[in-house]
């Protein structure tokens, strides 16, 4: 099969899966918007209030909702909008514009060692995401190594070990309770000696000891930077879409404490709260690198704003 045709087929397959995956979000969001606008020809304050309530319930966030409603009101005043059905087009265009600003695929240089520190609270799918990311990068011709620096939970080390075997990449680990910074140190030395392209580091996510966790992550960053100038080159935060606005709160906290350079939004296929991706894009100004829409190895993909908006509004991918 021609490579371009193969890629087109794969992209088409993923788009269909994305459409199916965010069906619950679409039902809770677009269909509710349709119900508000259905048959209404007059744009008045009551309509805006109904629309505002629907948007807030869809987890798109207060900042985006306020901006959108104000934009619509302004267009009505200027007589650019005279029909309620046109509001949906404004909504779609505004979402597309907001998400487009957050679309930024992870760029990994061909030469040298690139380090990725993956952070996030327990339960977001962090370790599973690392396995899928390793698979993705390996399929793109990179030599990948994993580091199990979540030494607080034995289960985290075991889970990462299962993933390392599944995707056939080496794992650097120590026993439960070991110093995470020591594992990071070992991983960088091992990667340098073996000529690896990428090291992906799993970290703890226990929020009930938030201060300790953040200090631990800062120490790991310092050790990495000392052993490899510029490291970590990417600090990826994994967020669970099913938590809605809590994901925004988590992102702000991690970003304020340690600095986050990219986001991965998981479990979009299991929630009606996928609208949170819009709130995240509007409020955080952090690139969305990947989205996860399933359990399969290939269900972690680069975030593409146009694909997401088309899937949300059930339009064919171009």
Overall, the morphology is elongated
Structural class based on helices, strands and sheet pairing: alpha/beta
Residues in helix, %: 40-55%
Strand order of the largest sheet: 3-2-4-1-5-6-7-8
What is the H/E order? HHHHHEHEHEHEHEHEHEEH
**How would you state the average pLDDT, rounded?**
91
Number of E strands: 8
Largest sheet: 8 strands, mixed
* Uncertain residue ranges: 1-6
- Strand share of the residues? 5-15%
Structural overview:
This protein is of the alpha/beta class. Helices cover 54% and strands 12% of the residues. It has twelve helices and eight strands. Helix 11 links the parallel strand 6 (262-266) and strand 7 (288-292). Helix 6 packs parallel to helix 7 (154-167). The protein is elongated and about 70 Å long. Mean pLDDT is 91; it is low at 1-6.
List keywords for this structure.
8-stranded mixed β-sheet, disordered N terminus, alpha/beta, elongated, 318 residues
